[in-house]
């Protein structure tokens, strides 16, 4: 053992950061600057109503999908898109307010109200129109829950939203839960006002959470109670109280999930040790009647008196919980059913309060979410349906009464954190490769058909559960969310071969795999596996587009070329960087030259022998410290080299530099003050494009991106394209630039997909709205090219005409006053 510096101890084989033990943030590891933050997983919901059937509602990226149960089928009429960004949360509207309706929350801070039976949007809202947002903060939505407020005669929905905030000046991040009222009658029928006439903004009052992201945010099916979990604390709200006046329940372990019973009498909590705790909320009734000051004084002592009942079966963290419907007219009206799931791939059915267990095993992957059918006057038999979300991105609907599988829904878009490739297939449809690095899942997705083409698990030795625990001599260690491993993926040889690398955060235990596409099975198969290809951490993995050639770079200063010789992948040659290590690299079109960056310089190597041919250094006046991206212009016949660099001076400036490869001289450079995220891509000939993405600031309330199109011979941009989104990566599809945004959408000036999309409908009837909902992007002149700058229409959209006649006729009728089913059918047929 040897003390290296103030915060670390050097150990044989790695480094242990003392900052992790002290609670301080350790030094960041080198990572790809083009990787956006992971997209959250959206839990499905099940809704039903007597006479109208039952539906499984899911999301796939920005698209809402409605599957009819028990068949589980979703046709083209069951898919619709009304968000510009990826959906992050899905919630069912409580039956006391509206039946067969749902709400979705997207990363673009928009909320859409849906008619589930027709898969049509009824209203579209902006979060900034519902809440008072501070201009000096950047908001990222994490979750949405719906409660019910008001009296039985005038019940209205109360939305609870979880937001992650980041200060634009200091960069400090925090998480808060806020609430706002929603009057559906005004949203669906009012005219003349942009927010429904009487829809006012909620105050800025919020409940700040200690953790960076809550473990769960859920509401009871009747909407009378909302709960959230943050580290070892559970927060409870009633729709009538403010977010800061939450009732708190403390636990000694990390809470992983929670669920509120249908009668709002019990709260089930799961922790990282496999325990299920059930709190009797009747013991907390005296606390709700206290004033705000009295609750603050007595909440600590009174909540300690609420002792939960503990049940233990799971060997690892409890990942999902859900309550079953009450059998009030059956043989056991006092028995409560609770369902739990984890990494054991087994559904556990608890009978409370006795604690008897029964099991439904052999699920395809760990159980990450459970959603039951809790609707007033639901279809007969549908109350026993349970939607089980698995870690392999599939949803299995089971009948817990008969313990049988009803249907399986697969092929949804994975919650990815990196876009590997984007292109057009032989049929002319847009396909994208998405990587979920935390689970090692690589998915090929058809954007036009909104379906999965193929999926590959590139990390078979990773734990699929988000709470991975390792056992040592002193017992199990504390679980870490998402695990500590990372995955890199790169295609080569016209996607006939695939290179993947998985490694721990410290670079130990790296597995480099080479895959070959088998045309007979239409799947990738492993050809070669290399353990620890480098002595240090691998920072870059790159495959050539048309040749069976790949390159890896590492923090040990070495980089290697891998080639397929006689059907086997071998390390053809290796060399050492002149200084530091290679961070970003690219191949020429023929594969004869490897261009890579080290420090403030670019190097060019002959791939046959790895002889260093030339070194181009960034001008010292720019104070560049490192390059984040390198591209050759053009890629087939490179005559120029372009590099995106970052400086260590004040303001974190970034810029681009261009060199003439014929004269090996610096051509020109451009600096972008204020930082931002930069990407570059060659568009053919001697032209390239650079995207400059900036976060929302005091001057601009939303994220923005400028795409500058250059000729490598001149520093004056030929044209500039302004996009109201944050670009994380650039692609060139047939010479056209396509932007991948952090919200999960793909934008271009002429590149378009054919996913059904609804942007606006002004005063249209039911048939008119249906025509808009089913129109493709190529048929809609306003949607052509998926323009990024879509301006909202002034005035209110009249969505009342699109409400089904059954729901509009009995919109304000309480559930207990609805007529018989035969009368409902007569109204529907008329």
Features:
62 strands, four-stranded antiparallel beta sheet, disordered N terminus, disordered C terminus, globular, 8 helices, single chain, mainly beta, 830 residues
Describe what you observe in this structure:
The protein has a four-stranded antiparallel β-sheet with strand order 4-5-6-7, with no helix packed on it. A four-stranded antiparallel β-sheet has the order 8-9-10-11. It is mostly beta strands and 830 residues long. The longest helix has 13 residues, at 292-304. It contains eight helices and 62 strands. The termini are far apart.
Query: Which structural category do the helix and sheet elements fall into?
Result: mainly beta
Overall radius of gyration: 28 Å
**Beta strands, count:** 62
Specify the overall morphology. globular
Q: What is the mean pLDDT?
A: 75
**Helix content percent band:** under 10%
Distance between the termini: 83 Å
Number of helices: 8
Q: Beta-strand level of the residues, as a percent range?
A: over 45%
Strand order in the largest sheet: 4-5-6-7
- Taking pLDDT < 50 over at least 5 consecutive residues as the criterion, the unreliable ranges are 1-37, 189-198, 461-483, 755-808, 820-830
SSE blueprint and pairings:
Blueprint (H helix, E strand, L loop, with lengths): L1 E2 L4 E4 L2 E4 H5 L22 E5 L3 E8 L2 E7 L9 E3 L5 E6 L8 E6 L3 E6 L4 E7 H4 L6 E13 L6 E12 L5 E10 L1 H6 L17 E3 L6 E4 L6 E5 L2 E5 L9 E4 L4 E6 L5 E6 L3 E6 L4 H4 L3 H13 L4 E4 L5 E6 L12 E7 L4 E6 L3 E5 L6 E6 L12 E6 L4 E5 L4 E6 L8 E7 L5 E7 L4 E6 L4 E7 L9 E2 L2 E2 L2 E2 L3 E2 L3 E8 L4 E8 L6 E8 L4 E9 L6 E6 L5 E6 L3 E8 L2 E9 L8 E3 L5 E6 L2 E6 L5 E6 L6 E10 L6 E8 L6 E7 L4 E8 L4 E8 L2 E8 L9 E8 L7 E5 L3 E7 L2 E6 L4 E2 L18 H9 L30 H5 L11 H9 L1
């Amino acid at each position: 053992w040897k003390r290296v510096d103030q915060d670390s101890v050097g150990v044989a084989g790695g480094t242990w950061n003392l900052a992790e033990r002290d609670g301080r943030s350790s030094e960041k590891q080198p990572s790809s600057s083009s990787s956006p933050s992971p997209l959250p997983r959206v839990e499905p919901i099940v809704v039903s109503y007597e006479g109208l059937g039952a539906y499984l509602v899911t999301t796939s990226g920005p698209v809402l999908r409605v599957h009819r149960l028990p068949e589980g089928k979703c046709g083209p009429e069951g898919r619709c898109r009304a968000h510009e960004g990826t959906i992050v949360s899905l919630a069912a509207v409580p039956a006391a307010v509206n039946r067969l309706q749902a709400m979705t929350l997207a990363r673009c801070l928009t909320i859409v109200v849906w008619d589930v039976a027709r898969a049509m949007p009824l209203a579209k809202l902006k979060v900034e129109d519902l809440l008072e947002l501070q201009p000096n903060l950047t908001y990222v939505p994490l979750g949405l829950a719906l409660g019910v407020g008001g009296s039985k005669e005038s019940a209205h929905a109360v939305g609870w939203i979880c937001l992650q905030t980041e200060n634009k000046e200091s960069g400090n991040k925090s998480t808060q839960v806020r609430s706002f009222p929603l009057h559906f009658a005004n949203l669906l029928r009012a005219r003349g006002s942009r927010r429904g006439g009487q829809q006012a903004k909620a105050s800025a009052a919020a409940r700040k959470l200690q953790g960076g992201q809550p473990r769960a945010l859920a509401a009871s099916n009747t909407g009378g109670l909302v709960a959230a979990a943050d580290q070892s604390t559970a927060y409870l709200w009633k729709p009538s109280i403010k977010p800061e006046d939450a009732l708190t329940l403390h636990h000694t372990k990390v809470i992983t999930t929670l669920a509120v019973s249908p009668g709002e009498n019990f709260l089930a909590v799961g922790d990282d040790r496999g325990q299920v705790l059930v709190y009797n909320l009747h013991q907390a009734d005296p606390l709700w009647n206290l004033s705000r000051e009295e609750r603050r004084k007595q909440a600590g002592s009174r909540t300690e008196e609420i002792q939960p009942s503990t049940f233990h079966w799971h060997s690892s963290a409890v990942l999902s919980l859900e309550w079953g419907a009450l059998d009030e007219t059956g043989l056991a009206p006092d028995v409560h059913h609770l369902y739990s799931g984890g990494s054991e791939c087994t559904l556990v059915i608890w009978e409370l309060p006795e604690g008897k267990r029964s099991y439904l095993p052999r699920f395809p992957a760990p159980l990450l979410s459970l959603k039951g059918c809790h609707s007033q006057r639901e279809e007969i038999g549908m109350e026993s349906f349970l939607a089980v979300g698995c870690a392999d991105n599939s949803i299995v609907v089971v009948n817990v009464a008969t313990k049988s599988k009803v249907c399986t829904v697969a092929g949804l878009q994975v919650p990815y954190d990196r876009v590997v490739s984007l292109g057009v297939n032989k049929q002319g449809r847009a396909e994208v490769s998405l990587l979920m690095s935390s689970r090692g899942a690589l998915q090929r997705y058809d954007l036009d058909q909104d379906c999965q083409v193929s999926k590959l698990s590139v990390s078979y030795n990773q734990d699929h559960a988000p709470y991975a625990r390792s056992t040592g001599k002193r017992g199990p260690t504390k679980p870490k969310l998402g695990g500590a491993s990372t995955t890199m993926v790169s295609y080569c040889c016209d996607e006939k071969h695939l290179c993947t690398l998985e490694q721990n955060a410290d670079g130990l235990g790296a597995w480099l795999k080479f895959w070959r596409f088998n045309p007979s099975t239409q799947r990738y198969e492993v050809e070669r596996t290399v353990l620890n290809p480098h002595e240090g951490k691998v920072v870059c993995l790159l495959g050539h587009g048309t040749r069976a050639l790949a390159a890896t770079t590492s923090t040990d200063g070495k980089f290697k070329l891998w080639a397929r010789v006689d059907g086997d992948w071998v390390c053809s040659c290796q060399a050492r960087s002149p200084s530091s290590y290679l961070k970003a690299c690219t191949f020429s079109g023929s594969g004869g030259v490897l261009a890579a960056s080290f420090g403030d310089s670019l190097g060019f190597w002959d791939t046959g022998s790895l002889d260093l041919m030339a070194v181009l250094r960034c001008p010292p006046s720019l104070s560049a410290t490192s390059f984040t991206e390198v591209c050759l212009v053009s890629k087939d016949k490179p005559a120029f080299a372009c590099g995106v660099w970052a400086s260590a001076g004040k303001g974190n400036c970034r810029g681009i530099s261009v060199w003439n490869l014929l004269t090996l001289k610096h051509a020109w450079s451009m600096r972008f003050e204020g930082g931002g995220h930069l990407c570059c891509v060659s568009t053919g000939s001697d032209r390239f494009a650079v995207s400059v993405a900036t976060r929302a600031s005091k001057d601009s309330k939303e994220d923005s991106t400028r795409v500058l199109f250059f000729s490598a011979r001149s520093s004056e941009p030929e044209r500039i394209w302004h996009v109201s989104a944050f670009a994380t990566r650039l692609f060139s599809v047939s010479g056209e630039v396509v932007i991948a945004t952090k919200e999960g959408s793909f934008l271009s000036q002429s590149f378009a997909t054919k996913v059904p999309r609804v942007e606006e409908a002004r005063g249209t009837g039911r048939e008119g709205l249906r025509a808009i909902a089913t129109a493709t992007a190529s048929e809609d002149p306003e949607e052509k090219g998926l323009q990024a700058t879509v301006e909202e229409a002034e005035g209110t959209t009249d969505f009342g005409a699109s409400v089904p006649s059954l729901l509009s006729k009995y919109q304000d009728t309480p559930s207990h006053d609805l007529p018989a089913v035969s009368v409902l059918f007569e109204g529907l047929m008329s």
